[in-house]
Amino acid sequence: MKKGRVWKYGDDVNTDVIFPGKYTYTPMEPEEMASHALEDLDSDFASQVRENDVIVGGRNFGCGSSREQAASCLKYAGVQAVVAQSFARIFFRNAVNQGLPVIISEEAPDRLEKGEEVSIDFQRNEIITQRARIPFAPLPDSVQKILDAGGLVPYTKKKIGRDKS
Amino acid sequence: MGKTFSEKVLSAKSGKDVRAGDIVTVSPDYILSHDNSAAIIKKFRMFGVERVSRPEKIVIVLDHVTPASSEKYAQNHKEIREFVKEQGLSHFFDINNGICHQVFCEQGFALPGKLIVGSDSHTTSYGSLGVFSAGIGRTEAASVWATNEIWLRVPETIKIELSGKLKPGVSAKDVILKIIGDNGADRANYKAVEFIGPAAQEFSISSRFVLCNMAAEMGAKNGYFPADKTVEEYLSSITGEKIEPVCSDEDASFESVLSYDLSLIGPQVACPHTVDNVKPVSEVEGLAFDQGLIGTCTNGRLEDLKEAASILKGKKIAPSVRVIVVPASRQEYLKALREGVMETLIEAGCVVLNPGCGPCLGAHQGVLAPGERALSTANRNFRGRMGSRDSEIYLASPATVAASAVGGKLCDPRKYL
Question: What is the pTM of this model?
């Protein structure tokens, strides 16, 4: 299991603060996208985030625009999962499609603290800290399959290959 | 037990008897995208297929940064035009048409009972014509291009019953702001919102568009008005196709039922930095602002421009503010021109931009500087959306923006009636 640190935010973290609209129609390499992650929410994030860190939000994480970079910039920044009480539906889909695990948990956001070390057991569906093991509900099968494939591109590629053969 | 509109459409499309909560795999009737088509094309190339699955289902409208404001945007547009040619896509609308959602309806793609997905969060707008339409992301748009398939969860439905008559100076925008303020930005997350009742039927298509457009700001998967005579009349001038409305059954199961008496609603304002931070205009009256925006896909139709012009007629906007007008489409722009509405707005001191998304997303045209404040008829007021992260956006109706522009301070439009 990979260990990372918690970055904690509140309710209604919208896609404009995750990845500002002014960049959305500018083609960018992954590294550059990662450098703008959470730019208008937390100016320390992009420079200090480390591989396998975990973002924790409250309700309605990722609300607003359908821009997919809101999910992919976090993935490219090395984030291993986003944990929130609820997700806006398009962000949820985008994250799954980018292979970025999303965890819906009512209690985890309250129990996790900023900066604390955390790992996620995706086999047992548990978030593990030094103080606690917090269970979370598995995703629906059809959604989990896309995540397991590493996102919608590899998933669809496989599917097209199967349909052809 | 009967079915909701969404359950019916998704049952018909999946060929299964499905209910809220089920996950279905369906082929949408159309798939919309805009300037983000360039990014979708890149994803599409990754699938290892040469041709799109159903070219006749793909609708592309260039609207977000039009005309291109930089070399990068120009390159984006160029790649899209080349792809359109390469794949033989016939439903392509270049920069001279307007905002994708308005153009999509004007071109007759949005027909009652159809299932439409779009790579834009305000795809919910077509519910104004009795369509099931939901926003999706770029990679899945590419996947639909390649496979003609997408998974969707059948949404629960929140029914919103509208009764009573709107007071003069109050419009659809105030109604939806009031509903979002009361219920919160995530109240309808993953859910369908159905607008029904005597007052819902009284609404014009343009007003219905405002409510369905902003249903997205409650998190809704789709917004919906039952297709009635008003829809039939609107569509009869656009398409010869037979209209087959789909409506919720009386005994369908709803997640909840909310009721609003429109006669009790006054002008509303969504304050920074969330759309559900809504207050009656009286609570923020007197607030100075720098830029007014009248238009966008939310409020850029003839009805909205007229509402603004009726207040600005014979008046001048205050020297301390600048007001930008963005018609939703070329068709709406022309109608407003022919009725003298644009003349009134220009005489009052407004700057008119070409139809498109313009300043709404802060990519070009009317970007805000640090410390500036905008009063806008658009649908979002998130931090930094229109430019600097240190600017502020207030959302209101066209009447409120126009009235406030006269004195340069936020005010109740009813004082100009």
Answer: 0.94
